[in-house]
């Protein structure tokens, strides 16, 4: 034992951290699977692969991967549209794309994606997730689209009032959320039990003690749930909708994982994330998950921060957490059948709420209103349309805003009443602002000499240069002194 501790000096800390991460991950893996419309065991499979396969690979040493609330909405829509057998194809293709992007060293470029788009994406997911899971809390069937989910909530609540089973379900869901909200205020010794596990444990005990008529998790067994994609399922790759979903999976899973890695790096003083290798680690995990027909994975900030805060020092903690998930799935699968669905829905409502950056929106609005607008529009687009198109709208807005700012130009005219009129151009002169520049210059008096100073320009594109030269020739043709131009 002493020799082992010498060889692995951080084994004790990593072992303790792995147990904490396991207890945090267990209810989340099951909850994400149920909300995604797949067997609960598939959430555990993704958690196991995220721990053991991705956990062993290089990249971000303390980041923990598994099924994430951020992909729940997209996975649910994909399963409803294409069927569960095609899910494995979607996830496998996502993993292979991530491996390719990592090999091409594209991981670092994901950091160039506007933070407002990513936060807007997570906020949109959070809104749809909350709306959808509130139906599960009320023991009702959720509508398909995000807008219908939100619009139908009042009537679902009214229908639940006269239903004993629905009221019991609401009570358990509300109790779960209350435990999660209040858990931080508990004494330190009590808080050694992770909040999600405590919430599920207490509501499961309450449901059993009072024999409440609520739906519980359906159990199929680990091996019974694993369904590798068939050859016929691969034929769906000819479907444009399937290709679009794969691109959405890849974009969102990669961005969320790499942004999570950047956040985790701020929590510890250990080795920094190697972004391309982390992308390949995520790709390898998703490829294995796809081959098993399981859920897609991303790095998850809740589990990762729990890992760091529990004192983890190396990747051993996340690998061991995968082993504990495997042992639980193999030895105690029947335990899942005791967990009430509204308890898991309550955890995801709480998780969805945490995805919405309320403070971030307020601070952005004070300092960068354009970025705040991109965040809000991205979120609302996801609710109104769908995940993929909502993210594309956000990216398009971000690019348009960058182009607008890159073409920012200032024209200052100084006219002292006598002598030449002085015109100073500063900033970036591009074709986007050309009409405004020419309107201002053509409004200058034709009978006065003009000095055009371009020394303050950072950039002058060909279209602007040609237009300014033509204007100078035309202005000079009125019998006045030629326009004097100071080159940039």
TrEMBL record:
Parts of the chain that traverse the membrane: 82-100, 112-136, 156-183, 195-217, 237-259, 323-353, 373-400
Signal peptide: which range, if any? none
Ranges where the SLC26A/SulP transporter domain occurs: 11-378
Q: Which InterPro entries match?
A: SLC26A/SulP_dom, SLC26A/SulP_fam
Compartments annotated for it: namely: Membrane
Q: What keyword terms does UniProt attach to this protein?
A: Membrane, Transmembrane, Transmembrane helix
Q: How does it sit in the membrane?
A: Multi-pass membrane protein
In which organism is this protein found? Streptomyces shaanxiensis
Q: What is this protein called?
A: SulP family inorganic anion transporter
- Pfam families, alphabetized: Sulfate_transp
């Amino acid at each position: 034992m002493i020799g082992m501790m010498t060889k692995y000096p951080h084994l004790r800390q990593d072992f303790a951290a792995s147990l904490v991460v396991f207890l945090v991950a267990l209810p989340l893996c099951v909850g994400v699977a149920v909300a995604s419309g797949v067997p609960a065991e598939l959430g555990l499979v993704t958690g196991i692969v995220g721990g053991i396969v991705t956990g062993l690979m290089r990249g971000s040493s303390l980041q923990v991967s598994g099924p994430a609330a951020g992909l729940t909405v997209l996975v649910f829509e994909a399963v409803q549209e294409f069927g569960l057998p095609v899910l494995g194809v979607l996830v496998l293709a996502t993993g292979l794309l991530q491996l390719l992007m990592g090999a091409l060293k594209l991981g670092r470029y994901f950091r160039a994606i506007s933070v407002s788009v990513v936060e807007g994406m997570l906020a949109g997911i959070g809104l749809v997730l909350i709306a959808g899971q509130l139906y599960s809390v009320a023991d009702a069937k959720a509508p398909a689209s995000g807008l219908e989910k939100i619009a139908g909530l009042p009537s679902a609540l009214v229908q639940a009032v006269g239903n004993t089973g629905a009221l019991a379900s609401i009570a358990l869901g509300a109790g779960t959320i209350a435990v999660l909200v209040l858990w931080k205020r508990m004494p330190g010794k009590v808080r050694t039990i992770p909040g999600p596990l405590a919430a599920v444990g207490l509501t499961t005990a309450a449901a059993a003690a009072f024999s409440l008529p609520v739906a519980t998790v359906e159990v199929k067994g680990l091996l019974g749930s694993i369904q590798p994609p068939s050859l016929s399922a691969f034929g769906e790759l000819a479907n444009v909708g399937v290709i679009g979903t794969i691109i959405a999976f890849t974009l969102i899973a990669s961005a969320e994982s790499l942004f999570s890695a950047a956040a985790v790096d701020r929590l510890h003083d250990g080795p920094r994330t190697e972004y391309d290798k982390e992308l390949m680690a995520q790709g390898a995990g998703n490829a294995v998950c796809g081959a098993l027909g399981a859920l897609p994975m991303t790095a998850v900030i809740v589990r990762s921060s729990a890992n760091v805060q529990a004192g983890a020092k190396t990747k051993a903690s996340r690998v061991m957490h995968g082993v504990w998930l495997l042992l639980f799935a193999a030895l105690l699968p029947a335990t899942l059948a005791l967990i009430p669905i509204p308890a898991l829905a309550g955890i995801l409502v709480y998780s969805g709420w945490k995805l919405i950056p309320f403070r971030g929106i307020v601070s952005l609005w004070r300092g960068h209103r354009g970025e705040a607008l991109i965040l809000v529009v991205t979120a609302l687009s996801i609710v109104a349309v769908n995940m993929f198109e909502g993210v594309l709208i956000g990216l398009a807005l971000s690019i348009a805003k960058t182009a607008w700012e890159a073409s920012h130009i200032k024209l200052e005219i100084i006219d002292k009443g006598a002598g030449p009129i002085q015109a100073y151009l500063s900033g970036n002169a591009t074709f986007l602002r050309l009409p405004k520049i020419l309107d201002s210059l053509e409004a200058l008096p034709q009978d006065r000499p003009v000095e055009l100073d371009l020394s303050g320009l950072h950039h002058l594109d060909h279209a602007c240069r040609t237009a300014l030269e033509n204007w100078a020739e035309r202005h000079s043709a009125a019998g006045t002194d030629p326009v004097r131009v100071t080159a940039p």
